[in-house]
Every structure is written in C-alpha cells, then in structure tokens.
Amino acid sequence: MENVMNSEVDIKALMKQIGKQAKAAAAKLALAPTAQKNDALINAAAEIRAQKKSIMTANNKDMAIAEGRGLTGAMLDRLKLDDARIEAIAKSIEDIAKLDDPIGDVIDTKERPNGLQISRVRVPLGVVGIIFESRPNVTADAGVLCLKSGNAAILRCGSESAHSSRAIHKCLVTGLKNAALPEASIQLIPTQDRAAVGELLGLSEYVDIIVPRGGKSLIERVQNDSRVPVMAHLDGICHIYIDEDADLEKATNITQNAKLRRTGICGAAETLLIDKKIAADYAPVILSRLQDEGCEIRADKMIKEIFPAAVEASEEDWTTEYLDAIISVRAVDGVQGAIDHITDFGSNHTDSIITESAEHAEKFLNEVDSAIVMHNASTQFADGGEFGMGAEIGISTGKMHARGPVGLAELTSYKYQVRGNGQVRP
Amino acid sequence: MENVMNSEVDIKALMKQIGKQAKAAAAKLALAPTAQKNDALINAAAEIRAQKKSIMTANNKDMAIAEGRGLTGAMLDRLKLDDARIEAIAKSIEDIAKLDDPIGDVIDTKERPNGLQISRVRVPLGVVGIIFESRPNVTADAGVLCLKSGNAAILRCGSESAHSSRAIHKCLVTGLKNAALPEASIQLIPTQDRAAVGELLGLSEYVDIIVPRGGKSLIERVQNDSRVPVMAHLDGICHIYIDEDADLEKATNITQNAKLRRTGICGAAETLLIDKKIAADYAPVILSRLQDEGCEIRADKMIKEIFPAAVEASEEDWTTEYLDAIISVRAVDGVQGAIDHITDFGSNHTDSIITESAEHAEKFLNEVDSAIVMHNASTQFADGGEFGMGAEIGISTGKMHARGPVGLAELTSYKYQVRGNGQVRP
C-alpha cells in the first residue's frame, strides 16, 4: 500500500480507510479455499528468499538508525537479520502453510427431536490488529497466521524495524497478488505517526481483535485504551512450587530449566515457592544449582537463613518479572500456602507444582487460576509449538475467547448452521 | 445486601465494593461442587414459592408506580407477576439445577511426544454483569444461570421492576445462604442511581463480561460505553429468502411462522427476500397468507406490482426491526442477490433459506455471515432452549468468545492442565 506510507494524509482518515479495506478483504478471505491461502503463503516464502538482498538493505538501514540512537546489544540483536534469519522466516511461512486449516471445521453436530440438524462450524474472526516491537520476523509470522486462519491482518511494527518490516511485508503482498487474494489481506500501517496506534485501537467498526506483542508498557497502553477486544498477557510472573512430596532431582532439574533455559521469555519462572516442611533439605540443593549457573537468589527470611548466600527479597520482588537470571524464593505453608501466594502475586500465566502426591497436584491444578497449570513440568513449555499448535501469535491470560497459547484455532469464531426440512416452531 | 440499597453512599465506592465482593465470591464459586450449587438453586426455588405473597406485594408496588407513569399495556404485561408466573420462575430455577454442570468438563486431551499430557478444562469466566429491563423473572434466570456455571453475578434490573426484582433476589440470597455459598454470589445493584450502570461498565478490574438484555438504546449504550467485553446483539433483522427451487408449501408455512408466531422476539423474521424468477408465482400465495393473518406488507416495486395490496417500502424498511406484524419484502437476483442484501442490511443474527437445492442451501449457509444460518427452518428457532442448551441468557452476534445462543457452556472459559513426570524443555 504505497498510499499508506504517505505521512501527509490525515491519519484518522487513513486508518479508517485501512480498516475498511481490511474488512472487505476479510469477507473474501473467509471464503477462500485452503489451497488458495497456501498458494499465497508458498509464494510469499519464495519471494522472501528472492528478495533477500533488498530485505538485508532495508535491515541495514534500520540497524544504522538503531545504532545511531544508541540501542543496547540485546535490542540490536533482536532487530538484526542475516541469511539464516531470513531463511528461517521463509521456512516458518512454509511450516504454517502445512498446518491444518481450521476454517470450515465442524466443531459439533446434534440432531434435535424435531429433526433439525444443528452444527457449529469454524469461521474466521474477521480483522485482526497486531501491534508489535523490534523483531522484524513478527511481520511475517503474524500476517501469515492471520491469513491461514482466514483473517485480514492490520500490522503495526515498531519504528526501529520499519524498513525491514516494510521489505518483508512487500513479499507477503506479492504472495497474495500471485494467489489472486486481496492485497489488503495483510496491511502494514505507518510507523511515522504515533497516533496510528491510538486510531487502530478505536476502529471497533472494522477490527475484531487486537493482539499486542511487546513490552509491558505497550501491552498496558493497549489494554487500557482499546475499544476493540484485546488478547494478550501483561506479565508472565510464573511460579514453581516445590511441594513437601517433591522428588528432589525433578525439583532441581525443573527449577533450573524453568528459570535459566531462556530467561527472557514469558514462560520463564520468576518465583520459587518451597514448602516450609522440606525447605531446609531441598533449598540448598536447588538454590546452589541455580547460583552455580549464575542466577541471583532473592529470598525471604526463612530461606535466607537456610541459604545465606541469598540476597534478602523485598515485597516488590513477588510481583517483578525479571526476564533475567534472578529468582525470588519464598517458603510457604504447603500447597494451600503456594496457591494463596500465586493468587496474591501471580499474573494468571503459567505455574507448576513439583510433587509426587497426586492429591496435592490435583489441588494445585484445580485451584490455581492461571491460563496454564502444570504438574512436574517446566514452565518453559508454555508455548503454542510445545502444545502442538504449530505456531502461536502469543499467550492470553484473559478468560474471554481464548486462554493460553493463541494459535490458528484461537483466531477463529463459529457460526451455527441449522438444516431442516420445513420445521416451524410450535 | 442491605448496604447496597443505601443511596447515600458514594456510588463509585459502592460499585467498587460490589465488584470486589463479586470477585471474592467468584473465587469460591469456581471451586464449589455441583451438588452445592444445585442445593442453592433448589433452596431458592422453594423460597420463591414460600415468599409468593411478599413477591406479589412488591410487584403490586411496581405495577402501581408503572400505571402512575402511564406505561403501555405491553410493558405492564411484561412487568406483571401472578401465581402462575411466580411458579414458572421457581420451576425454571429447578430446571437449571437439572442441567449438566459444565465446570470441570475436559474439553480435549492430547499427549505430546515428550509424554506431557495436555488437557483443556472448563472453568467459569468469573464475574458476569447483567443489565436488563422490565421482566422481573430475568433476575432469577440470569442470576441462576451464572451460579450454575460457577460465575458470580452482578444484576442491574430496570427501575420499573425494582421492588419485584429485590423480592426475588432476596429468595436467591436465602438459597445461597442455606447452601453455605457466599451471599455476594448474586448481587443486585441499586436502581435509584442511574450512574450505577456507567460505573458497572467501567469495572474491568472485577467484572469479566457484561450481558445487556433489553431494548436497542440500552444495548447501544452498553456496547459504546463498556470497558468490559460485552456479549449481546443490537438488532435481530432476520431474513427469510425464498429461492427459485423452494417448495411453495414449506415457504409459506415457514414464512408465516418466522414472522407471526411471536412478533416481539429477536428471532422473528423482519424481511422476506424472494428470487425474481419465481416471485410472480410465489409472492401472491405467501403474502396473502401473511395478510390474512393481519400482517402489514411493505414491498419493493416489483413485489408491489405482483401484490398490489402491499404498501411501498422505503430504504429504511430494510434496516428496521419491527418486532410487530409488519414485514418488508424484496425481489432479489437469486441466492447471490439474497446474500448481498443480507450482507448490506442484516444484523448477523439469524437468516434462513427456503430451497430444495442443496447447492443453493450450502452457498447460503456458508456465505451469509450470521450467528445462525438456516435451511428450510423458521428463524423463530433461534433460541438456546430450541438448540438443546436448556436455557440461555441471550444471543450474541459478535464473534468473540461466544456466538449465537449464550447458555451455560458459553459462560465458561478454560484452563490448560499439563501433567508431566519431570519434563524439562530442551
């Protein structure tokens, strides 16, 4: 959309036009056969490979600007593309093409006593707005997940990745064109004008759902300001609870993995809860392992007495998502104490109990009110791919519509199809 | 809640307190066993029978005020209670007690290659806000559907039914108390202060979903102002399309039923579309039948020529929900013409095609973007009871969360329960 990039147009009118175009595209996408959608995806992947050079040129521009602005190493790394990363983008598009198309699936069918056949059939949501930061590959991932699930996408990338995202978006549009699908099926909105996000959040006439992906301040703003329903999670304050009946080896390995496998993801554990009854025996083993691998330990009084190398935790630590090699540790009164702590300080994302007691496990699984509750498993499994969904656009901690990983099926709605032979209601 | 009725308290603080109480009650309800919830319901039904006299006294007050305000006959009738209606309220509560409890249902389970067992289990949404008008029985229906599905309810009745609703609500609270469930599981908010509705719509910290039931202006206000997700439908502009391959007898009977069985419900047909090719043959038969039964016909030019007794329709007729014995009629170009008309003028509620052509039927069922699409059946079947759900709180035309009739299952969310034996993510 060349016109979309012209910053001189009135942003309100422009966003309305984008919304309108998306809605029209969505009506066509809803009826597009799977083969045609896959055709667009395979074409887009090929185009991304073919345009590797121009994508790299665009990315170099973004990198130069970012360096000039003094962005940190981690942020620069997220932004950077290279041959392998561009190939990964193309490959990921092809992987999504291979996933089953949820649209048209019959969820259930029943026959009523009067002979009416009532089926629920999956249909797309319509128009999905996605607001994301820095990683340019999200442009492809997000657009392509929407397309495969029959939804039109309106994408808003971070200004850091504007050139890279635009270059990738161009390839997606080529794929759409080659498959004779509307170009407005995936639109990228201007990054120059910060008001565009506000306008997008108000487009409830055209946009069915907003999915923000990024830091806490972005999500917070979207959740506060949106007139359109939002699927997202604000925090990932994930807990591991070591029960009195835990197997120490499992407890140690799972805690190490949940905290340190990757510290920057939302499913990383941030707080470790240990039953008081076994704290003196278990804490030294588990915490030494973490400390040996470079993790900072912030503990409550009881744990600090047992493991003096720990720093003393403040109240704030229980609600902090470190996304770093830091863990807060607290002794609690059994499984009920753990549930109470999670209820008070958790973020309804992912929490895991380590125990050999089936009774304690079931209590925890039933009573912790989080999108994902686990028994004897690492919280780092909180991921659409690990759940067998193939790909996800994010994880939702809200209870409306979808909870947990949001994959293709979660980007759909349903309609009732009722088949009769002349029935009238008495 | 006696304190709730004190109009001198600051309404903002009061509503916040109600929200907080509801959230605390919801946490307990989420874990309440089915038997305990049913116990509360059966107790409430018994109390309604026992309190028949005081409910009638309260209703007489409402009726006197309504008559004084000059309310119309239909509205007075909706407001009026008598022995039979009170018995029906008690019976309806008992019927909901008999329905299957959706909470705890395992929606699906899969085992991943690494041995993780991943199940989706139904949990309540949390706190449901319901805003409704005139009919006092909704107090019981709405509160009881929420309770059975493990949700706390915050009810706001119309000021006309304030005394009746309060008397019925008192019986529900007695039921809760007798079953040792929190009294705040079902709260009724004051009707004196009109600001209460606005406050409720802003309680996104405590309220998970708002369900408005009432006239267009109420729904419109709620949909525009709510910071909490809304499930509702604004209009029920339902269509019957008579295809060229329709069976004339079915077409006539279904149209008569869809329009006239009850004209005041949202599933009543408001517009009849007839394929041009058979209009001259079919329209006179179908329209005479309607006219004979007292229905006003508002037709486009072509139909008016065929059936001169019709009034000429204006553009406005295609978007008017008459809720009365009036029908708009238009000739269209085949099934595609019908789909186009419904896309332009429909309200995504319920639409039905009458045809013996499987091909035309499937095209209509797939391409009409409404919550409920039908083939050879009356639109008056658009009802949770008729769909086998036992009871409904309304019909949703939005695509988020639930679409079509909203029954017990639609008032739930889910959580993922993941069972492992020590798995860590590679």
Question: What is the succession of H and E elements of chain A?
Answer: HHHHHEEEHEHEHEHEHEHEHEEHEHEEEE
Count of DSSP-assigned helices of chain A: 14
Supply the CATH architecture of the largest domain in chain A: 3-Layer(aba) Sandwich
- CATH-defined topology of the largest domain in chain A: Aldehyde Dehydrogenase, Chain A, domain 1
List the strand order in the largest sheet of chain A: 10-9-11-8-7-12-13
Radius of gyration of chain A using CA atoms only: 24 Å
Derived from helix and strand composition plus strand pairing, the structural class of chain A reads alpha/beta
Q: Which whole number gives the mean pLDDT of chain A?
A: 94
Terminal-residue CA separation of chain A: 54 Å
Q: Work out the helicity level of chain A.
A: 40-55%
Specify the oligomeric state. homodimer
Total discrete domains of chain A: 2
Question: What is the name of the CATH class of the largest domain in chain A?
Answer: Alpha Beta
Give a brief rundown of this model:
Two copies of one chain form a homodimer. Chain A has helices at residues 11-29, 34-50, 52-68, 73-79, 83-98, 137-148, 162-178, 195-201, 216-225, 248-260, 276-292, 301-306, 334-345, 358-367, and strands at 106-111, 117-124, 127-132, 152-156, 186-188, 209-213, 238-242, 269-275, 296-299, 311-312, 326-332, 350-354, 372-377, 394-396, 404-406, 412-423.
Give a verbal description of the structure:
2 copies of one chain form a homodimer. With 426 residues, chain A is α/β, with parallel strands linked by helices. Chain A has 2 domains: 3-233 and 405-417, Aldehyde Dehydrogenase, Chain A, domain 1 (3-Layer(aba) Sandwich); 238-386, Aldehyde Dehydrogenase, Chain A, domain 2 (3-Layer(aba) Sandwich), CATH 3.40.309.10. Chain A contains 14 helices and 16 strands. Chain A has helices spanning 11-29, 34-50, 52-68, 73-79, 83-98, 137-148, 162-178, 195-201, 216-225, 248-260, 276-292, 301-306, 334-345, 358-367; strands at residues 106-111, 117-124, 127-132, 152-156, 186-188, 209-213, 238-242, 269-275, 296-299, 311-312, 326-332, 350-354, 372-377, 394-396, 404-406, 412-423. In chain A, the strands form 4 sheets. A 7-stranded parallel sheet of chain A has the order 10-9-11-8-7-12-13, with helices on both faces. In chain A, strand 7 (238-242), helix 10 and strand 8 form a beta-alpha-beta unit. In chain A, helix 3 (52-68) runs antiparallel to helix 7 (162-178). The longest helix of chain A is centred in the first third of the chain and has 19 residues, at 11-29. Chain A starts with 10 loop residues before the first helix and ends with a strand. The model of chain A has no long low-confidence stretch (mean pLDDT 94).
